[in-house]
Each structure stands twice: as structure tokens, then as C-alpha cells.
Amino acid sequence: MKLYLAMALALLALLIAASGVAAVTRGWVLPMNRRHVRAPRLYGWGQLVVAFALCWQLVFGLVISDSGTGPAGTLIGGVILLAGIVVMMVGQLAGGNRNAADGL
Predict the structure, then answer these.
(1) pTM score, two decimals?
(2) Segment 71-81, tens digit of pLDDT
(3) 40: helix, coil or strand?
(4) Residue 57 contacts by C-beta under 8 Å, 6 or more apart in sequence?
(5) What's the CA gap between 104 and 102, in Å, rounded?
(6) Contact of 72 with 37, CB cutoff 8 Å
(7) Which side of the chain, N or C, has fewer Cβ within a 10 Å radius?
């Protein structure tokens, strides 16, 4: 069961990281998020932080879960994940010179 969870989590982290790299380097955001994201580079950095947090939790939750550092590592990964989500939210709210006629 752990192997399937690890593979799914690693794939999800890879996809989020790829989207984050595209947003940071080119300013490209997935079509379903384009309307909401006003600062694509900041949003991309948030995606990269989220991908890092998922990998962090993967390592500490599944690989190093036998030692005493497992619970503390997953807790730190949760804090990093929350920080990445906050950065993504700021990327949706900040920046950009959009007006009400652009699609609310």
C-alpha cells in the first residue's frame, strides 16, 4: 500500500513542480487557473513550494517513518505545504493591472 501512495504522491509533486516551473520561467498558468491568477510568477513559486512540501512529506512520512524524526518531519512538511498554499493565494490576489471588464 505504501508503494502505491508513494508513486501517486511523487507523480502529483512532479506535475505541480512542472506547472510551477512553467509559471516561473514563462509566466504560463494552466488554462483553468488563468482567470484567477494575477501574478503568475509568484503563483509558480507557490507551486514549487507545494511540490517540495509533498516530496518532504513523502520522504519523512513513508521512507523515514520508522525513526523518531518521522512525525516531526511530516509536521514540518505540513507547515511548508501551508506556506506554499498561502503564496499561491497571494499570487491570485496580488499584482496585475486587471480591471472589472477583464472577466471578474
Answers:
(1) 0.84
(2) 888 889 999 99
(3) helix
(4) 9, 73, 74, 77, 78, 81
(5) 6
(6) no
(7) N
